[in-house]
Amino acid sequence: MLWDNYPEIKQKLAKVEEIIQKSLRCRSKPFEEFLHTLSSGGKRLRPAFTILAAGFGKQENEKIYDAAAGIEILHMATLVHDDVIDDADTRRGKATANKLYGDKIAVYMGDFLLTRAVLLLSKSLPEDRLEKIAGGLKSICEAEIEQFFSRFDLSISLFTYLKRIARKTSALFAFSCGEGAFLSGCDEKVQKNLVKFGFYFGMAFQMYDDVLNLVGDEAKTGKPRGNDIKEGIITIPLIIALRKNPAFAETVSGIMADKKVSDAEVGLIINEILNSGGIDDTRAWIDRYLKKSRYDA
Ligand code: 2DE
Ligand code: MG
Ligand code: MG
Ligand code: MG
Ligand code: MG
């Protein structure tokens, strides 16, 4: 496990895990079984951030564990629906809900997870904070809707991409830190810094996810490589390569004109992104955002 060398986090994550496992109980046994399998492959990054952020406060508070579990289950709900939208066959190295049971059942599974997340968050957080989270969820959906309707649109700017990933990914990381900080009684300034860390880390995380979608090892990512290009999701490495290499932009525009990209064309596009420095330049953007995430005392 990712946290094996951090016994203190590991021990606290075990409490979160117990809550997650209980929350996945369902009258439908096939549902329960699938959700346990999906759950078992996660890194638990967001709940670990909740716990780490809570370490900055003085108060011990059992609600931290419910909030951490709620955020992780919320994340799982978005993944199940995301795989429907992205038409993805694998997740965490295993078949997705949509692949195994079809889109209809996968929608129910995501919905079920959402109900469990709402319960845990409403048990652990006051109304004004729940309202902020609800607003964040609205933003996640809006970013996804906007991304869906601009598939294969090569005119997307880097700025639009950055705003989109801020909504679809960073928001949940920001909450995972912010709620831990709040529940442990951190003062305002510390809470703000931790939210800022989560937000900028989330930006770097999504950019790295987008790199891995192009050049990652499927055995490690557990997700289908090249799927973003197949689905017409235009991410930062491609945006940079299109801008740097006008001849390549012409080629991609020809390939994507019919909104269909063959496996061979996916391979060609990935190669050209690499040759044009799209991956290297994205790594520089990732570093920039990781620097921004640093804590200022
Ligand atoms: C990750 O993008 C983005 C996740 C947000 C998905 C949210 C949806 C709305 P990726 P990967 C679909 C659902 C909202 C609910 C249930 C409240 O790059 O690479 O597609 O892991 O992620 O597939
Ligand atoms: Mg996806
Ligand atoms: Mg997606
Ligand atoms: Mg991705
Ligand atoms: Mg085509």
Automatic annotation (TrEMBL):
UniProt-listed Enzyme Commission number(s): 2.5.1.30
A Gene Ontology molecular function term of the record: metal ion binding
Pfam family membership, one: polyprenyl_synt
Highest taxon, organism lineage: Bacteria
Essential cofactor(s): Mg(2+)
Gene Ontology biological process terms in this record: isoprenoid biosynthetic process
Keyword Ubl conjugation on entry: no
Biological source species: Thermoclostridium stercorarium (strain ATCC 35414 / DSM 8532 / NCIMB 11754)
Similarity field: Belongs to the FPP/GGPP synthase family.
Name by which UniProt lists this protein: Heptaprenyl diphosphate synthase component 2
Lineage: Bacteria, Bacillati, Bacillota, Clostridia, Eubacteriales
Enzyme class per UniProt: transferase
Signal peptide start-end: none
Coiled coil: none
Keywords, in A-Z order: Magnesium, Metal-binding, Transferase
